[in-house]
Design brief:
Length: 298
């Protein structure tokens, strides 16, 4: 099986896992909405609303995985793998929006507390936590690219919301102290915001063709410049073309153009060791014009 076929199979499996997670999440969100409205619990309503956004994020992620699995075309010669970056960006932004909605409603509840049925909140929240854990397990069985990680973040943060709702329900059931409900909602909102900002930064960076944070492009350039027959590497670019695929282009100054096929083979091997599978190298003779950013053989 070719590398492209492997990528297609992974994307197909990821899409199926996301659709199954979507069905479970949306199904239980309806239960939580009804229970939250009946019990008067903001924590439960927030968790239900969070599960609805989880469903939307899973739907977006599933669509992105399906599009990413489509082969390249004349209009999209790299394929549509980058749509997964857009899905992750949308999901991260939606998480930030959910946090502000929860925080605003929690503040209102602190100013005007109401009656809450603690027993109903606890029981439904326990079921919600179980659903979230099942969904997280389903997502963990596929590849862990940026798109899936964004969906997983939604689910795990929703699991935290369920834990908060359980704690709020138990405290209200035993003591009748209702302020615990909005206070825990604010706490969980803060945790969600902290994790969302990191994902938002990474998704935006990938969308803007940024070099992966885990990669040092200076070391990549130097490794390429150390290839026998190479005098210098300049105009070096590395960017993501899909969640699991990196591309590289560079101009390579070589002493002897006649040995370029062997040099190219070695350059590709170095790029492959760096996790880069799509490369374009432009050979140049010593008479060519040098660029300001250079990686010179030591």
């Amino acid at each position: 099986m070719s590398e492209r076929d492997h990528a297609h199979a992974h994307s197909s499996t990821t899409g199926k896992n996301l659709l199954l997670a979507l069905a479970l999440t949306l199904g239980f969100s309806i239960v939580e909405l009804i229970a939250g409205w009946h019990s008067g619990s903001l924590a439960l309503l927030a968790d239900a609303g969070h599960m609805v956004t989880d469903g939307a994020s899973l739907g977006i992620s599933a669509l992105a995985a399906w599009l990413a699995a489509r082969p390249p075309s004349r209009r999209h010669t790299y394929g549509l793998g980058r749509v997964e970056f857009l899905a992750a960006l949308i999901n991260a932004l939606s998480m930030v929006a959910v946090v502000f909605v929860i925080g605003s409603e929690a503040w209102q509840r602190l100013q005007h507390p109401g009656s809450i049925n603690g027993a109903t909140v606890s029981i439904v929240a326990v079921l919600g936590l179980l659903i979230n854990l099942v969904v997280a397990w389903i997502l963990s069985r596929g590849e862990r690219n940026l798109n899936v990680r964004a969906a997983m973040l939604h689910v795990m943060d929703d699991a935290l919301g369920s834990v908060a709702a359980i704690a709020a329900g138990v405290v209200i059931w035993l003591t009748g102290w209702t302020p615990i409900d909005p206070l825990l909602s604010i706490l969980i909102g803060g945790l969600i915001l902290a994790s969302s900002v990191g994902l938002l930064r990474e998704a935006l960076h990938a969308t803007l063709d940024g070099v992966p944070f885990t990669m040092n492009i200076e070391l990549v350039g130097q490794a390429l410049a150390e290839v026998p027959g190479v005098s210098e590497v300049h105009d070096l670019h590395v960017w993501p073309i899909a969640s699991e695929r990196l591309a590289l282009s560079a101009h390579v100054l070589v002493a002897n153009l006649a040995s370029w096929p062997q040099t190219l083979h070695l350059l590709r091997a170095v790029a492959s060791d760096q996790g880069i599978d799509h490369v374009t190298f432009q050979p140049e003779s010593p008479a060519g014009e040098l660029q300001p950013i250079q990686f010179v053989r030591r």
